[in-house]
Design brief:
The protein has 17 helices and 12 strands. The chain is an alpha+beta fold. It has 3 domains: about 120 residues, no CATH class; about 120 residues, no CATH class; about 160 residues, no CATH class. Strands 1-2-4-5-3 form a 5-stranded antiparallel sheet, sandwiched between helices. It has a 5-stranded antiparallel sheet with strand order 6-7-9-10-8, sandwiched between helices. Helix 11 packs antiparallel against helix 15.
Length: about 500
């Protein structure tokens, strides 16, 4: 921590030495006052600042207003530094700093620094104006009904999108910086009277565990704060939707907003949260309950179908009905590979097509999907490399994985699928169920910030109403209590003040 000197020339020399060979730094030394000139120095990074604020609130005020009122500086006992700070800058968002480290951090963060000769302190004016793409629809969580706003790469825009939905003074934004070189701004958001203190303390401790040089994306923090790093299952929920973050905060959870990324982390989380979509609460409860059951079934099919087929055809063909056996045998006629090799060929080919479709531009990516799914699939069948039923199984597996709302959870099931395939090819149905048992045992032991991962199905201290928003989403008026994440004394979220009898009872069947 290098303190500032009362000599402006010394401060300028130290500052410009730090920013040597940085052509994007804009700096200027200029006098204020007429009779007795007092020298000032201003510095900022081009394009990182709001030029209108610089010109109207800083430069115009310092050069025109202060120089036009020389008597205030020369013929009074007022502190010139205080005069410039309180009367020479037309903005309320400013602060004093007294070290060179604070000055460099402010400039690198997009603020403007004003140093005045004769003072061992400087003024930092908030002039951030980063270029960003603004608020756009989220491209990973599309919904039919609901908000079309998505997070952007600007931290302050993201926090505003959340505050716009929760207009409560209990919503707290604890801003910190991580990364010794990147000094990335991170906002930890929570509702003070809903979050459990032990959960908030645990998250803050995990954020302070590591001294890392760079945090370029929220995925870096996600991997740092997960204790079960060996697990394929995500222990942090990731979203681009402000309404989903607002809903999570109202459940007593904590959101971590990272600068330079549109993906916000939500802690703690459970597997049940990954099957919930934002529009589940905007449409009829029985429709979305049916859809949610379909998602659970699709999640099971996404990793179980290939292994089940291998176990059935390789070890237990007697369990297949006779007509279906003849059909499978006719389809596999001429195929030189066993079922295991067929499945691996198609699964890995689909993984390659999926990766190619993601990396290529959108128009070309769609073309790759069509070419891979239709032309290549038909070609390998006609070449007798795989049987048609394998193409059907792999396609059904892929469609099932796309039905899961969370991409992170989908990736976990993609990895588990190969474990089930391996065990099924070695031990048949015994290996298939051993693989399922291994996965369930791991999920039961898994926790996210000390919250059981399979809540509310296995947690000991849950309330019966927690199941109202699990496999089936009950009507809104029946979900009176918040889930397990919230403080025990702040569970009630829906209060109904209606009469038991009478024509004014809106719940009375007419």
């Amino acid at each position: 921590m290098v303190p500032l000197s009362d000599s402006l020339d010394t401060n300028i020399q130290n500052f410009e030495e730090l920013f040597k060979d940085c052509g994007d730094i804009v700096k200027r030394k200029f006098p204020i006052g007429k009779k007795k000139q007092i020298w000032a120095y201003i510095a900022y990074i081009d394009v990182m600042i709001d030029r209108r604020v610089i010109e109207e609130s800083v430069l115009e005020q310092l050069i025109i207003q202060v120089r036009g009122v020389p008597e205030d500086l020369e013929n009074t006992d007022d502190d010139p530094f205080a005069f410039v700070k309180d009367g020479g800058l037309a903005t309320a968002d400013l602060k004093e700093v007294n070290t060179m480290d604070d000055i460099t951090l402010a400039v690198l963060s997009g603020d403007t620094v004003v140093m005045i000769d004769g003072y061992e302190k400087a003024i930092v004016v908030a002039t951030k104006g980063f270029p960003n793409r603004g608020v756009q629809p989220p491209d990973t969580e599309s919904v039919i009904r609901g908000s079309k706003e998505g997070f952007s790469e600007a931290l302050r825009i993201n926090t505003v999108l959340i505050r716009r939905r929760i207009r409560d003074t209990k919503l707290k934004v604890n801003q910190i910086q991580l990364g010794t070189r990147t000094r990335t701004d991170i906002a930890v958001m929570y509702i003070d009277d809903l979050v459990r203190p032990q959960i908030l303390k645990e998250i803050e401790q995990r954020l302070s565990y590591f001294n890392i040089d760079s945090v370029l994306e929220s995925g870096t923090l996600e991997q740092m704060i997960e204790t079960e790093w060996y697990s394929p299952f995500p222990q942090t929920q990731v979203t681009q939707r402000p309404d989903k973050v607002a809903s999570a905060l109202l459940e007593g959870r904590v959101a971590i907003v990272v600068d330079n990324t549109p993906f916000v982390l939500i802690l703690p989380t459970t597997m049940n949260c990954f099957f919930q979509s934002a529009e589940d609460y905007y449409q009829r409860w029985y429709v979305m309950s049916f859809v949610r059951i379909l998602r659970y079934c699709a999640a099971f099919l996404s990793f179980a179908i290939p292994g089940f087929y291998i176990a059935l055809t390789t070890f237990h063909p007697a369990m297949i009905p006779t007509p279906l056996t003849f059909s499978i045998a006719a389809a596999r006629e001429g195929v030189p590979f066993p079922a295991l090799i067929e499945v691996l060929i198609m699964e890995l080919a689909f993984e390659l097509l999926r990766e190619a479709g993601v990396r290529l531009p959108a128009p070309i990516g769609n073309t790759i999907g069509i070419v891979g799914g239709i032309i290549v699939g038909q070609a390998v069948v006609q070449a007798n490399l795989v049987s048609p039923i394998i193409v059907i199984i792999v396609a059904l597996t892929a469609i099932s994985s796309f039905a899961i709302p969370s991409y992170s959870l989908t990736s976990a099931f993609r990895m588990i699928k190969y474990l089930i395939i391996l065990l099924s090819s070695l031990l048949g149905f015994y290996g298939f169920w051993v693989g399922i048992l291994i996965v369930l045992t791991h999920l039961v032991s898994l926790k996210s910030v000390n919250v059981p991962y399979l809540s509310p199905f296995v947690a000991r201290d849950i309330h019966r109403s927690d199941l109202n928003d699990a496999l089936i989403r009950m009507p809104t008026f029946m979900n009176r209590l918040r889930p397990i994440f919230v403080k025990p004394n702040s569970q009630v979220k829906v209060r109904m003040d209606i009469k038991e009898k009478g024509e004014n009872n809106v719940f009375t069947k007419q």
